[in-house]
Design a protein that fits this description.
binds ligand LHQ, 266 residues, 10 strands, 6-stranded mixed β-sheet, alpha/beta
Length: 266
């Protein structure tokens, strides 16, 4: 456990690392310190061979309420208007890219409301398990802003362009049952079972061939914007890498020997 007051808490349970956003008094609003710590934590998880799956969740009753608006107001009061261009480029974009590019599965355990850039953070995760009381708000419009932190990239890909526009235009709250129905989340769990559900999925993913999972993520990310020929070639390149791993050999041997495989993530 990190010290009290730390903007994030990092805990390892075997190969599963959980990062908890830890500003519950402000619904885990994203200030500079939290964003920097979280980006660094994702980078550290990438480097740590022992970590084979990541969970991102929030402390208290929210996942994240998005950009810390009090920080924005305080800077305005000091006459230091934030230029959101560099703010996004320096603090948010590296975080979102880090999550999309880390070659390990990232599960968002969405424990409560995810609003604005907090919603974008949830959408950047590979898989989302939501508590029954969780909700999603494209809150940007409510403060006169444009969806950012990859919301305009992830949201239409998850729910389709028309629904994405409706959610971004209205800034209305999408509750967990609707989120499941429209493909915004993969699973909904009772509030008191969210941690268990996310951990169960994480343990399952952490026991799989990590290298192949990572390459699968790379391939599917690339496939969104590729033409068929390019993607086929990319698959061949990645399969050549996967084919040289221990876990591939182990999977084949285990199948033929009719025994469970012992994947090492190598
Ligand atoms: C907060 C916040 C918050 C500070 C609740 N900040 N304190 C923008 C700029 C630049 C670059 C990056 O990207 C962005 C994108 C964005 O993220 S813009 C969107 C920012 N987020 C929002 O507009 C959401 C603001 N929050 C809300 O609408 C509500 O708090 C929600 C719907 C999330 C939850 O409502 P309630 O359950 O009724 O909670 P609450 O409003 O009473 O909040 C609890 C406390 O948390 C409260 O403080 P207090 O001292 O009164 O207990 C809020 O002031 C504080 N809080 N969100 N983003």
């Amino acid at each position: 456990m990190a010290a009290t007051g730390s903007p994030i808490v990092i805990e390892d349970d075997g190969p599963v690392r959980t990062i908890t956003l830890n500003r519950p008094d402000v619904l885990n609003a994203l200030n500079d310190a939290l964003l920097r710590s979280l980006t660094e934590a994702v980078r550290d998880a990438e480097k740590a061979d022992a970590v084979r799956c990541l969970i991102i969740t929030g402390a208290g009753r929210a996942f994240s309420s998005g950009q810390d608006l009090a920080e924005v107001r305080d800077r305005y009061a000091r006459g230091q208007a934030i230029d959101f261009g560099p703010h996004l480029r320096n603090l948010y974009n590296p975080l979102i890219l880090g999550i999309r590019q880390i070659e390990k599965p990232v599960i968002g355990a969405i424990n409560g409301v995810a609003a604005g850039a907090g919603c974008s953070l949830a959408l950047a995760c590979d898989v989302r398990v939501a508590a029954e009381s969780a909700s999603f708000i494209e809150a940007f419009i409510n403060v006169g802003l444009v969806p950012d932190s990859a919301a305009t990239f992830m949201l239409p890909r998850l729910v389709g362009i028309s629904r994405a526009l409706e959610l971004a235009f209205t800034g209305r709250r999408v509750k967990a049952d609707e989120a499941l129905r429209i493909g915004l989340v993969n699973e909904v769990a009772p509030d008191d079972r969210l941690g268990d559900s996310a951990s169960k999925l994480a343990r399952k993913l952490a026991a799989l061939p990590t290298r192949a999972l990572g390459l699968t993520k790379r391939a599917i990310n690339a496939g969104w914007n590729a033409d068929l020929e390019t993607q086929l070639e990319h698959e061949a390149t990645l399969q050549a890498i996967a084919g040289k791993t221990h876990d591939h050999r182990e999977g084949v041997a285990a199948f033929l020997e009719k025994r469970p495989p012992q994947f090492r993530g190598e």
